[in-house]
Amino acid sequence: MAACSPVLLARGRPCRNLKEAAENFRALLSAEEVFGNLNPVELEIGCGNGAFVAELAKREPDRNFYAVEICSNVILTAMERVMREGIPNVRFLNIPAEILPCYLPGESVEKIYLNFSTPLPEPNRAKQRLTSPRFLGIYRALLKDGGTIEQKTDSGYFFDFSLAQYALCGFEVTDVTRDLHKSAYAAGNIVTEYEANFLAQGKPIYRAVAVKRAAPAENEDALLPPQ
Ligand SMILES: C[S@@+](CC[C@H](N)C(=O)[O-])C[C@H]1O[C@@H](n2cnc3c(N)ncnc32)[C@H](O)[C@@H]1O
To answer: N or C: which end of the chain has fewer CB within 10 A?
Structure first.
């Protein structure tokens, strides 16, 4: 982990209470200082082994990328990849997405990627899904107006849940497909580690874009569908 310090910006939880941490702890990063330029900033949440963000950063050298991953041994693989390949425009945060507001300034991000986030189909885990109103509120605060979330998943249930939450939380849903690899959106798609596994199993990949729009409803609990 120490060898990866040049690309690792944050590690761990500022305190046990994530809500309190997000409200009270601030170690806001300046992208200009981090990357040495004023290029647009994009964010991948749950980057896994980093294959996606590494390829994207190579294709988009004039954009900067933050990659967030909660699991230390997984993010280590991603960081080693980026360092080995000498990719200059990627930095990592080994934190739970819940505390992103502690590190990234509001309205500083142009695009968020959610690739194969854990679907958590159990009804009592709806609030932990990365597209629940709690998280969409965080993403809204981080995104610039007109900023987007690009989501891919193998779970039809999670996909439908996410589309409903986007609509309720002030996002306009566009570019929807329930079979990415048989759609026009397949061109230029970067296949992630999990995506490759699901494709090998013959599963369709669901994909949508959510664009930040009007103000959302105020009570996030009222937004979750009845279970
Ligand atoms: C199913 S894997 C997908 C990995 C990768 N995106 C891919 O498509 O190959 C989901 C990843 O999200 C990470 N993750 C789950 N919840 C998270 C959270 N709250 N904050 C940050 N990362 C999270 C997990 O540790 C895991 O590596």
So the answer is: C
